[in-house]
Design a protein that fits this description.
The complex is a heterotetramer of chains A (225), B (739), C (161) and D (445).
Chain A lengths: L3 E6 L8 H9 L7 H5 L7 E6 L8 E6 L7 H5 L5 E3 L5 E3 L9 H5 L6 E2 L26 E2 L5 H13 L12 H5 L5 E5 L6 H6 L4 E2 L11 E4 L4
Parallel strand pairs in A: 1-10
Antiparallel strand pairs in A: 1-8, 2-3, 4-5, 6-7, 9-10
Chain C lengths: L1 H20 L13 H4 L4 H4 L14 H7 L10 H8 L20 H5 L6 H5 L18 H11 L5 H4 L2
Chain D lengths: L14 H8 L3 H27 L14 H12 L3 H10 L9 H22 L8 H4 L6 H21 L3 H10 L2 H10 L7 H34 L11 H28 L7 H32 L2 H11 L4 H20 L6 H28 L14 H22 L33
Chain lengths: 225, 739, 161, 445
């Protein structure tokens, strides 16, 4: 069984936010307005935050998305099992099961679970730009980064129809695919020959707030020498 | 209730049951219809991909559009394109929103009443073109005639544009984009080579950057991001070190190993200061330099006289030890490189290029190369021309805008509406109600990039010669025209020599002619799979040749299908050859240290020394956030959400102030402040920046904020009003108060 | 006052029960298509994409005219045939519909999954009149029972999106 | 109402209480109308929220919980008023409790509905609330909450109802019409036989013991909803007892407030004497001290530990944007009640009322300063904002309080708000000895 993981090299990352837009378009995240953004209702599954990291002169810009913990604090507290850790290590959110209690959003130390405060809306002319592979979440449920799980489903199907195994390049989340600085590497952590496994066990690798015991599968590579 | 149900009860309850059934059945049908409507948008399935070219800036990235049943749903980089290599920046992806923009013009329109609030009326294409042609014909005879403004693009469409307007007797002005175009003349001045500077960041080991937004959007965004990534952590190479000298804490400063806050107008002094240390400490290969540079002695003398570390330290505020350390660091690594912001002052560009010569970075891996080209035509600067118009020095009868780039440039007029007051007739080709369209009398909307034919010469940042080419990726959504047919229609309506100059009928003609030219040139290749491996193999096997194609037509088809043409042959010795072959290197001799003046992006001549006003003690510098500096549609909600990140102020203009000032004002996270200049005042979010010098603040400027559409309008007032009639390219004195 | 309260409550309860208990409202199809008559042909001949794509297509006029040069005898009216022959869109009502949050791929189930159309669509192929509602009511347990039986993935995120 | 003419000679010694049920005065009507108006307004606000989603609130990321959850904790806390207090006092045979038990128990039952209701108001998808039962996830403290609150609601309802039976029977015997039918059905055939008395006493005794651990568990579990997460200043081991103490504290305050109002409105000065208020005032004083002790322990350890994330929350409460709430809370929960109640001269009816009102405000603020500041200072450096509830949230809160008051008033019009049978001499053989020691005070004595 694969264990999907993502490595973000902070030394390479320029903070250009291409990943943020890629995620927004790929996953049908509705647009905000100044008013909604002002009260924390920006719909983003990945965003740039200023994090104080040891050894850096000023706060680093850190692309922050669901850390896909192996011990997720959010799944334990869900009263309806609407969020759970799937066998491949992706923390999934099942929208039709979610009652919108927002306990998981509060339990998450990374604050990366997003709540649909209102019904998502697109102007009429923009209706077509939504990705038909991904649902538009209704109001009142929590949503989050899924490592573009729909891409995995599609890739696996293509591979099976073609009668071959899933190749590493078949499945890449939108953010990783777009990253112009080539700062993101995605793959199977359980495969010792994969790039992610090598990078994740390298000397620069760290997991953010790992002292909380969350065991994230998003691994950052430290900036600096 | 009585004990036994009465007849009446029976009737009432039967009635209730029937009513309930009717209601329920209605509800059931209604729910069914709701269900159907809800499912509608995803009732699609056939996925295709089309190549196109990103036109959000001049980098010319090849893009790949994902279409589902012909409707675009996502834009990625074209994996075959040597510039994008399958990657793309935030702006490029947001072009998807331009296509769907609910506030796009539906078709041609003309203004009903001049002055006052804009009122528009749709006009059939024929009438709109006739109206424009009539005004153009009449204007041809007037003194200042017609002024035509466009972004400084190169390629067949730009040539067609030039040809038509030249024939119409118009004066052409171009908005220089932040590209190598400005660096090129200084490189020629230094080396005599007619070439675009190519900075090999990727392979350098140490980059000293004078304000170059390497991590934001330098020269060619996606190329710069990739170069930065590989410079930092390239395959099997050591980590590159970056020192950023910047007036504000840009994203690059944030990523740098060291950030020195030095105002842009003091940066040349620092560069020359470092150069003088190199001479003083004999870290310069004088022998080699003397063989190519005629005025080395003069240069050295000048530097050692004026730019002693002490002088530079007192001028820039950078401690002497730091200057010494920087000079030593620079030559202590194997492949150092000095880079500079493309729009920097002449003095700074000169200083930076000279430094590169001193450290031996010319034509060296990880250094500075030149990419030869035909001499570029000198082009009028649109921002300056429009300022002349706005201030009445130039009085054209017709003003034509291809786009709004000139009105967004920091050097352009701050109040576009004055142009409408001065010029009797304004024409815009913009597909959006942007700044230019807002003042236009007639709008002839062109297609948006996804609907267009493309063939363009990208801003030079890459060594290879690349021409991205593409057919429209999507169907035209609204009643718009491509630039080629627009020009053709206008030319026909004007008639005479203008019509004669027009040898095409549409952009398709122009692009196909360009592809044909490429095919007959017998060099280069269509974009090929796994660009890098192929390139490497070809180079290793002794050179590059045109890939065999059965015919020119087949070659052209492959160019269109793959998204472009590339000739990766790269002469890595061009600058050296120029020195050897022609005139010798001549260092631009630095002037004596300028006296202290207010900080700002002042370009040489503009930088008049003004005593600081006690009412307005803070020098405000304008900057355009990389994510919002679009040349096309400004109404892109996804980009507005990126503003002010990672500082947590999305959707807002923000002012960066130093911690000292922030302390005084009591600015914590998410505080609004009011900026007041002699001309206007503005409320913005304040962002506190550790290490920003006192007395300086930096204000973000987002283009198109007032006119361009529903989201754009939410950003608010145009910050450039603070500058009055001064171009926002220079510092402005303001006072900051907490609200 | 109390005289009206109870009847109104009864009416509302009946209405709510009606919506909740009864299956979706039957839908009339524009053309009296006879599946049984066409059953000799494979389903995919008309429902294109059922084995190759995510969605099984619903045939349009051009699919009919591929085989029928002239009006087929039987129940189809002259007017309806003229519409088809001129390529006008047939306003079929979609009966089997998946909720927005479910990802389902026909290709995967008909290909590697080797499911027959009838497993989900029931006896549609034997119907002589167009069905006015989905022959099989598909709910999550329908999917799950098969997934359990066949050892297919039961990961929620595999189908929910 | 002070002109009550009840005298020992009248037919029923508890005429004022019975009268309070059977007559509806203009004051009652006016208040009821006003409260109904508030409730209707809240229903409008709720409809608005259902239509627009929780976007109608001013919540956002990372402050995902706000007023509703504050109210939830507050109401569940107040619910400890009743059952727990009456049960404890019953067990320790503090006979002075007799006239106040019912008042307290009614508060418990009613307020629990609003506690649960606030959670429902807070759900993004209230239509799916049943998923909690259909697809329960046993590891979720929220599910434990659902369990313990439902048990508590059941137990406290039973505990309210059982002692009500003899009084209902009494009402059955003095009324006619629909009231008679209603009481007859609810009295469960009570005739006052010795066997029935015996069973009643047994049932009450069992429930009194049962309800105490349940009540303790309820607020412990409520506190665990917070404490089980690793959020700074939520992840605290003393949250269980701290919440229970706070709950009893706010519960007593709620009883005192209710007592003063009922006493005044229905003229029950005979039943609720200075002594009751003095005793409850002393209890409140004890709880204030306990509350102070827990608060001090909680904040001292946080401050001393110096963990940066914890300290960020701590500072935002002590000196930051939440300081005004924190210090008001401190004043309301400790300074004011302690000053008033520690002094026997001010521990009067008026004094305890003032203290109680302050305590209730303070305890509400305590819940608020537990819920919001932790969320406002998340570990991850995401953009935060200043939370201030929206009109919808305020309206729903007002609606909850109004509906509670309305239901409480309604209860007083249906059932004796004072447990009558416990106040009178019972048949010698069946009455506990202590029951005879406490009789209503003489009127105008």
């Amino acid at each position: 069984m694969s264990r999907w993981g993502l490595v973000i090299d902070l030394d390479r990352c320029t903070g250009c936010q291409a990943c943020v837009v890629a995620c927004k378009h790929e996953n049908n995240l509705p647009f905000s307005t100044p008013e909604t953004a002002d009260v924390g209702r920006l719909m983003t599954w990945i965003q740039l935050v200023a994090a104080d990291l040891p050894g850096r002169p000023m706060p680093s810009s850190l692309p922050l998305m669901c850390q896909q913990c192996d011990r997720p604090p959010c799944t334990d507290v869900c009263p309806t099992s609407a969020t759970y850790l799937n066998p491949e290590g992706i923390v999934a959110q099942i929208y039709p099961r979610c009652i919108g209690c927002r306990y998981c959003t509060n339990a998450c130390p990374y604050a990366v679970k997003i709540f649909n405060w209102t019904e998502p809306e697109w102007p009429e002319s923009m209706a077509g730009m939504r990705n038909p592979d991904v649902s538009a979440r209704p109001k009142g449920v929590v949503e989050k980064c899924t490592f573009c799980h729909h891409r995995l489903i599609a890739a696996r199907e293509r591979a099976r129809v073609a009668g071959r195994e899933l190749a590493p390049e078949d499945y890449v989340p939108a953010c990783v695919q777009i990253c112009p600085a080539e700062a993101m590497t995605f793959g199977d952590l359980s495969d010792p020959h994969s790039d992610v496994a090598a990078l994740a066990s390298g000397p620069r690798a760290f997991r953010w707030m790992e002292e909380l015991g969350t065991q994230p599968k998003v691994v950052y590579l430290r900036e600096g020498e | 209730m009585s004990d036994a149900p009465s007849r009446r009860d029976f009737l009432v309850y039967s009635g209730a049951a029937i009513a309930g059934v009717t209601l329920g059945e209605t509800g059931r049908r209604w729910l069914g219809r709701m269900d159907e409507r809800a499912a509608g948008w995803r009732d699609r399935g056939i996925e295709t991909f089309a190549v196109s070219v990103c036109r959000e800036c001049l980098a010319g990235c090849g893009i790949r559009v994902r279409l589902v049943d012909g409707v675009p749903v996502k834009i990625d980089g074209n994996p075959l394109c040597p510039i994008a290599r399958g990657r793309l920046c935030a702006k490029g992806q947001a072009a998807l929103e331009s296509y769907f923009d609910p506030d796009r013009l539906l078709g041609p329109a003309h203004r009903i009443a001049r002055g006052g609030p804009a009122r528009w009326e749709p006009l059939p294409w024929k009438d709109a073109v006739a109206l424009a042609a009539d005004k153009i014909t009449r204007a041809a005879g007037t003194p200042d005639g017609i002024v035509v403004v466009a972004a400084d693009e190169r390629g067949p469409e730009a040539e067609a544009w030039t040809r038509v307007w030249r024939a119409a007797g118009a004066r052409l002005a171009w908005t220089p984009q932040p590209t190598a175009v400005r660096l090129r003349p200084r490189l020629r001045h230094l080396t005599g080579a007619e070439a675009d500077p190519i900075f090999d960041i990727e392979h350098s080991s140490y980059v000293l950057s004078f304000g170059a937004p390497l991590a934001d959007d330098w020269l060619s965004g996606v190329w710069a991001q990739r170069s930065f990534g590989r410079f930092r952590r390239g395959v099997a190479s050591s980590r590159g070190r970056l020192v950023q000298i910047d007036g504000r804490r840009s994203a690059t400063a944030r990523k740098a190993d060291e950030w020195l806050a030095v105002a842009p107008d003091q940066q040349s002094a620092l560069a020359y200061g470092i150069a003088s240390v190199l001479f003083r400490e004999n870290r310069v290969d004088r022998e080699r330099l003397a063989s190519v540079a005629g005025n080395l002695g003069n240069f050295e003398h000048q530097l050692l006289t004026y730019y002693t570390p002490d002088n530079v330290a007192s001028e820039t505020g950078v401690p002497v030890v730091t200057i010494l350390r920087m000079a030593r660091e620079l030559v202590a690594t194997p492949r150092p490189l000095v880079i500079v912001e493309a729009g920097a002052s002449v003095a700074l560009v000169d200083a930076v290029l000279s430094l590169n010569v001193l450290i031996g970075a010319i034509d060296r891996r990880g250094g500075l190369f030149g990419r030869g080209d035909d001499p570029l035509p000198e082009r009028d600067d649109a921002a300056a021309v429009l300022r002349d118009v706005a201030e009445g020095r130039l009085r054209p009868s017709v003003l034509v805008f291809a786009d709004s780039s000139a009105l967004r440039a920091l050097g352009g007029p701050n109040r576009p509406e004055t142009l409408a007051e001065r010029v009797p007739f304004v024409i815009s080709f913009s597909p959006y109600v942007d700044e230019a369209a807002a003042i236009a009398d007639v709008i002839l909307p062109a297609d948006v990039p996804l609907e267009r034919w493309h063939a363009m010469v990208p801003a030079a940042a890459l060594g290879a010669e690349v021409i991205p080419v593409a057919a429209p990726a999507v169907k035209r959504r609204l009643d718009t025209r491509d630039t080629g047919s627009l020009l053709h229609a206008l030319a026909v309506a004007i008639g005479g020599p203008v019509e004669a100059a027009c040898s095409w009928t549409s952009s398709e003609d122009l692009v196909r002619a360009e592809v044909k030219r490429l095919a007959t040139a017998k060099r280069g290749t269509p974009f090929v799979t796994t660009y890098e491996t192929e390139w490497m193999q070809q180079l290793e096997s002794g050179g590059w040749w045109a890939q065999a194609a059965d015919s020119d037509a087949a070659f052209s088809d492959r160019v269109l299908a793959s998204g472009g043409w590339v000739d990766p042959y790269f002469d890595a010795g061009q600058l050296t050859e120029a020195l050897r072959g022609g005139r010798s290197l001549s260092f631009p001799l630095p002037e004596a240290l300028p006296s202290a003046q207010i900080a700002g992006r002042a370009t040489g001549a503009d930088a008049a020394a003004e005593p600081p006003d006690t009412r307005f003690p803070i020098a405000l510098v304008a900057f355009q956030p990389a994510v919002a500096a679009t040349s096309g549609n400004a109404n892109l909600p996804a980009l507005f959400e990126l503003l002010g990140q990672p500082d947590g102020v999305p959707w807002s203009l923000w002012v960066e102030i130093g911690s000292e000032l922030a302390e005084r004002l009591g600015v914590q996270a998410r505080t609004r402040v009011r900026l007041t200049s002699a001309h206007a005042s503005l409320d913005v979010m304040a962002v506190r920046v550790e290490g920003m010098p006192a007395g300086v603040a930096a204000l973000s400027i987002v283009p198109g904020a007032q006119t361009a559409g529903r989201w754009s309008r939410l950003i608010g007032k145009d910050p450039r009003r603070l500058w009055g009639n001064d171009p926002a390219a220079r510092a402005c004195a303001v006072q900051i108060a907490r609200i | 006052m109390r005289r009206y309260v109870f009847p109104v409550i009864v009416a509302v309860l009946v209405a709510v029960g009606w919506v909740l208990v009864l299956p979706p409202a039957p839908m009339a199809q524009p053309i009296a298509f006879n599946h049984a008559k066409h059953a000799s042909a494979a389903c995919v001949l008309c429902h294109q994409g059922a084995t190759t794509g995510v969605r099984a297509g619903i045939p349009q006029a051009d699919t009919c005219t591929r085989c029928h040069a002239t009006a087929p005898g039987g129940k189809i009216s002259e007017a309806a045939w003229t519409g088809i022959a001129s390529g006008r869109r047939i306003a079929w009502q979609r009966l089997t519909r998946l909720p927005d949050h479910v990802a389902f791929s026909h290709r995967r189930h008909t290909g590697p999954g080797q499911l027959a159309c009838a497993s989900c669509h029931g006896d549609v192929a034997q119907r002589t009149a167009p069905p006015d509602r989905a022959p099989v009511r598909l709910v999550m347990t329908t999917c799950l029972s098969c997934h359990t039986r066949e050892g297919a993935s039961e990961d929620c995120a595999g189908c929910h999106r | 109402m002070s002109d009550s003419t009840g005298s020992p000679d009248s037919i029923d010694p508890h005429e004022p209480v019975i009268n309070a049920i059977l007559t509806v005065g203009p004051l009652f009507k006016r208040w009821a109308m006003a409260l109904v108006a508030v409730v209707v307004w809240a229903i409008i606000a709720w409809t608005w929220q259902l239509y627009h989603g929780l976007g109608a609130t001013h919540l956002g990321r990372p402050i995902y919980w706000g007023l509703y959850i504050t109210n939830f904790v507050f109401f569940i806390g107040v619910s400890h008023a009743g059952t727990l207090i009456s049960a404890i006092l019953r067990i320790v045979q503090a006979e002075w409790r007799r006239p106040i038990t019912r008042m307290a128990e009614v508060i418990t039952v009613l307020v629990l509905f609003f506690g649960v209701g606030n959670v429902l108001l807070d759900l993004g998808r209230p239509d799916r609330a049943l998923n909690v039962v259909l697809h329960p996830h046993l590891r979720s403290p929220l599910l434990w909450d659902v369990g313990s609150i439902s048990v508590y609601l059941t137990a406290s309802s039973v505990y309210l109802f059982i002692p009500l039976i003899p009084d209902i029977a009494r009402m059955r015997d003095v009324t006619t019409g629909w009231r008679h039918r209603l009481y007859a059905r609810l009295a469960l055939g009570w005739t006052g036989t010795p066997k029935q008395w015996h069973r009643l006493e047994r049932a009450i005794g069992v429930m009194a013991i049962l309800v105490i651990p349940i009540a303790v568990s309820v607020h412990t579990v409520v506190s665990w909803v917070f404490a089980m997460t690793i959020q700074p200043m939520w992840h605290s081991t003393i949250f269980g007892p701290y919440f229970v103490v706070g709950a009893i504290f706010s519960g007593i305050a709620a009883i005192i407030t209710a007592m003063v109002i009922v006493r005044k409105v229905y003229g029950l000065e005979r039943y609720l004497t200075e002594e009751h208020f003095n005793n409850l005032g002393l209890l409140l004083l004890v709880m204030a001290c306990l509350w102070f002790y827990f608060t001090f322990a909680e904040y001292l350890t946080t401050w001393y530990g110096h963990e940066p994330r914890e300290l960020a929350v701590f500072n935002s409460k002590i000196s930051g944007p939440f300081a005004k709430f924190f210090w008001t809370m401190f004043a309301c929960c400790f300074v004011v009640p302690f000053t008033i109640l520690a002094n026997p001269h001010t521990r009067t009816i008026k004094g305890t009322l003032v203290a109680s009102i302050f305590v209730n405000i303070g305890m509400w603020l305590e819940r608020f300063t537990i819920v919001v500041p932790s969320l406002s200072n998340p570990r991850a450096p995401v953009q935060t904002f200043g939370y201030w509830p929206s009109w919808v949230e305020w309206s729903l809160m007002a609606g909850c309080f109004a509906a509670f008051a309305l239901l409480y008033m309604g209860f007083t019009k249906l059932f004796p708000i004072i447990s009558l049978w416990e106040l009178e001499p019972m048949p010698e053989a069946h009455a506990p000895a202590a029951a005879r020691t406490f009789q209503p005070a003489e009127a105008s004595s």
